[in-house]
């Protein structure tokens, strides 16, 4: 039984297609089609990351608002208690 290893050059921008050798694959990687594909994937990834960061920012702003309100209420209660103690 003889086993052989064969390199297969594929790219997600052209599914189901195999390039014949490393040089043709390298030329494909430099092509406008591939660059456009990479750019669109990067833009999609960036939009997803921006949305995740926006959601995280909204959560942090809400938490900050709640903590600020809690702090202000505590400060008001402290002032009321101090006034009662001084009377």
Describe this structure in words.
- With 87 residues, this protein is mainly alpha-helical.
- The chain has one domain.
- It is 72% helix and 5% strand.
- It contains 2 helices and 2 strands.
- Strands 1-2 form a two-stranded antiparallel ribbon.
- Strand 1 and strand 2 form a beta hairpin.
- The mean pLDDT is 94.
Keywords:
single chain, 87 residues, mainly alpha, two-stranded antiparallel ribbon, 2 helices, 72% helix, rod-shaped
Concise overview:
The chain has 87 residues and is mainly α. The chain contains two helices and two strands. The chain has a two-stranded antiparallel ribbon.
Question: Could you describe the largest sheet, including whether it forms a barrel?
Answer: 2 strands, antiparallel
Average per-residue pLDDT, rounded, comes to 94
Number of helices: 2
Sheet/helix structural class: mainly alpha
Major sheet strand order: 1-2
Task: Compute the number of strand runs.
Answer: 2
Helix content: over 70%
Strand content: under 5%
> Ranges with pLDDT <50 over ≥5 residues?
none
Name the overall outline: rod-shaped
Q: For the CA atoms, what is the radius of gyration?
A: 30 Å
Order of helices and strands: EEHH
Domains, number: 1
- Roughly how many Å apart are the termini? 100 Å
Task: Set down the secondary structure blueprint.
Blueprint: E1 9-10, E2 18-19, H1 22-29, H2 32-86
Antiparallel strand pairs: 1-2
């Amino acid at each position: 039984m003889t086993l052989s290893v064969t390199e297969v050059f594929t790219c997600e921008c052209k599914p189901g297609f195999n390039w014949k050798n490393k040089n043709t694959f390298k030329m494909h990687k430099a092509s406008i089609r591939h660059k456009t594909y990479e750019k669109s994937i990067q833009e999609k990834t960036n939009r997803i990351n921006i949305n995740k960061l926006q959601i995280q920012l909204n959560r942090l702003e809400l938490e900050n608002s709640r903590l600020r309100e809690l702090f202000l209420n505590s400060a008001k209660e402290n002032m009321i208690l101090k006034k009662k103690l001084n009377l």
